[in-house]
């Protein structure tokens, strides 16, 4: 009989390192390249003599404190040779380089180009990186026979290190002496259970070696002496960190879409500017010189470029993401990369580690089997039990004995006794802590006096040979004063027992009892639990009086004929709220899968408790239907559990089959495997999020579209690799993140839709000025103070826009869902671009700036470009046809008509401040006054003679109302763009109080530009504009809202929004597994 949790291999990094003969003499860069396949460590295969010879050190395995260690001079030489025992910090981009990258964005480059052209016109016409120290500050080591305390960074290969309980392992060490030594490898391998370490080893895989302890892991019990064999970047921790740094992250979905949108707008902007530069030059026949013609045409081209570019868009996007990131921080989600805010809302697949992420990394007693009864440890009168389970009751025979053995036969102790039991910290490994906590919860304050009541007289700690721990206490009974308690591996305990406790009676063990034991053990182990057995022996007073002296060497204590008391199973339970969080993710169309280093049974058992796996796997379906596994068709099951051993041999077709399943668990995986999983998921079009807390998670965290690390339990390496950190270590916080990410995407889309709506009314005045021609209704500076003025206030208000429907927000499918059609389309696209991908790495071929520029210029003339252009786009993108249509063909046109109407009303009806008569400039008249010459009068068709000053004034008023009109109609557009699924009339558009603040700020800003005389000079506006003309853009604002409502009515009727399908079997109500309730 074997326990699947404890007897299975503990290593989770899949490497064939047994025959590697490399040493730390290799440079770190070379070992980093090998990390993806092999770990550079093989000392675990060497004998004591060989290890001393290899590192020219001296130690005494029988008397470790008498070891000599390295000579000081040798240590100093090696420190120079190998460097300090610290990990190389991840390379970071200098802030100035980041600034240049932002400055080199396409929109910004266009504006820089405009600035350069403006200077040309003036010439033509004069009118920390701080290192992350992941090494313990000090450690105890031996040199020249003397024990020293020194910074761990000074350690070199060959040093003799002494590690005690609670110490962090300072380097990779080869253990030559150990006493009850256990290490917590969970941060490195994902194993929740502490691993025993001795000076013996039978494993070839270094991570399974029992004579190696790795840098960064924690000593949880005992002490050990070891030889340092790897330091700094050459440690296993360092090699995994190098593997992380070697991975590149692809552009976020938001970056890709903005880049594409910028490319489209830039194409139109440059094309329009060039075309109308030529038109303006040819039309400038009234200019006296060629220089004047070029100056005029270039000035016009600059205006077109400025009008096309939404100058406020980059800052608006950045500020919206920043505000959202700040809001997410209040919900325990810290964003390191602003793009990650939106990426979290776009993910289609969330791959999560188990230990410490989904579970608490805290063993908890779940079941007890005693007196032939299966008892649920935490249950009450309202608990729903599955026969033959029974509720917990201390009156059941054997329960009290198990509680006492858990408390007395243990090295676990509380750190303090002056606070309630629930608030105390236990110093012990996870299993001991779980049993002791269980006993303390049942015994209450009695636990503090238990040792005084029943003093311990003898003890044998747990070891790998016996696989049990034993204590003898002064606990009296009918036949004597001493009681012997023992706990350990079930098959070992059963072997030394001749009797079993049944209903308070000592009954001789029969085959039926053994069969019942086997059935109970398999039931517990089948749930993926850690199973321990308990036995006792009430020692006869005649043979073992109260003053009897027990001796380990003489073995004068009973090792057979004990009474079997029962079994307990412990599990690392899910964190509070995880089950509901996984359920919400799945309801939102996000595929959640587990990628863990734990045993498949454990992983599947946890998965079925947290809504991750609801349906049958192929094996379960075969067992349930009494059919062979081979007879089950691929379309009959939708859940799959993959063992890490299979991953390396999987074909592309098998990968496709795995990801086609709704419920996926990968068990016994390594960092390399996790990388493979992420890469294969991304190759199918998934936007992948990865959560994790251990060093073993960091490569996948770095490669994923969004890496999410844990703050409290997370390792430094994982936090460095991640783009987002859960501050409270609560997986349920990811649901808040996804909800926030989706909301910010919709709000970003609304904001962009609003911002670019004024592009057409900004562009057309320049085009009409040359093409018709008519007076310029809006100048370039006014365009700038639109985009960087009142529009900024309004656009930013979308950052606080609430969801139109909180319920529907998490029922909308991911905006880029992965389907069979999308996978087929992606594979065809990849096939078209196979020559542009590095065949060894699978990454796009990197180009220098000139190569990239030539590639971009040549691409529109390639077949692939037009195939991509015609390709059907699935899902929802940031700037889609709907947004472009609204901005450029619908709202943009309405705004343009409204502004030009107001412009011509001002030209005709506005009253001159000199003659107190209307200017009476008709449309036909305006075509004759495209330019105003000094001291030149103009006669309208009605006979009205306008002086040069009046001409300037009326144009300034016309440009003022055009500028002010854009602001007014955009105020209405602000409400029209708010509603994605509803109507712009009602309560929802009014809920965001910051909208009103932005409107007030926008009106004040626009009024400052128009109605403040000093600004009139700079921006060619006029404070004499009569407010009565505001009515015209207000009317067109209402027309815009009415049009938006009719448009929404048609969309809701013919293009209804699709929600995700309901998932049967989701458990979304609180239970003891999701809330931690004991009642």
TrEMBL record:
Q: Which GO molecular function, any one, fits this protein according to its record?
A: ATP hydrolysis activity
An example Gene Ontology CC term for this record: plasma membrane
Segments carrying the region annotation (Disordered) are 1-36
Q: What sections of the protein cross the membrane?
A: 98-124, 261-282, 294-313, 960-976, 996-1015, 1027-1046
Its predominant location is membrane
Q: Which SMART domains does this chain map to?
A: Cation_ATPase_N (SM00831)
**Protein known as:** Cation-transporting P-type ATPase N-terminal domain-containing protein
Q: Which organism is it from?
A: Clydaea vesicula
- Cation-transporting P-type ATPase N-terminal domain mapped to chain residues: 42-123
Q: Which NCBIfam families match?
A: ATPase_P-type (TIGR01494)
List the SUPFAM superfamilies. Answer: Calcium ATPase, transduction domain A, Calcium ATPase, transmembrane domain M, HAD-like, Metal cation-transporting ATPase, ATP-binding domain N
InterPro entries on file: ATPase_P-typ_cation-transptr_C, ATPase_P-typ_cation-transptr_N, ATPase_P-typ_cyto_dom_N, ATPase_P-typ_P_site, ATPase_P-typ_TM_dom_sf, ATPase_P-typ_transduc_dom_A_sf, ATPase_P-type_domA, Cation_transp_ATPase_P-type
